[in-house]
Amino acid sequence: MPTDYIRNGILYVTENYLCFESSKSGSSKRNKVIKLMDITDIQKYKVLSVLPGSGMGIAVSTPSTQKPLVFGAMVHRDEAFETIFSQYMKITSAAAAGADS
């Protein structure tokens, strides 16, 4: 799967957004703000499958991305994934409940 690989920064999860701030100076074009409601797919991603524990990231797809965004080289990938996924489920469940009323 072709991807847009993003690394060297901080990934934040808020109530409604997933935000990435690049740590490289002058790299504001690599900063990303994604509405959790816009996410169509989120999965754990391993860029280098031949090396154990290496290249661990999270792949996120939205309607506006032509290929998944991969936030890579994550130290605590599993914990980050669980946090993002649980907030995503919370906000999409709330939206679905609101649509049913």
From TrEMBL:
Signal peptide: none annotated. Residues 3-90 form the GRAM domain. GO terms for biological process: apoptotic process. It comes from the Eukaryota. This is GRAM domain containing 4. The lineage of its organism: Eukaryota, Metazoa, Chordata, Craniata, Vertebrata.
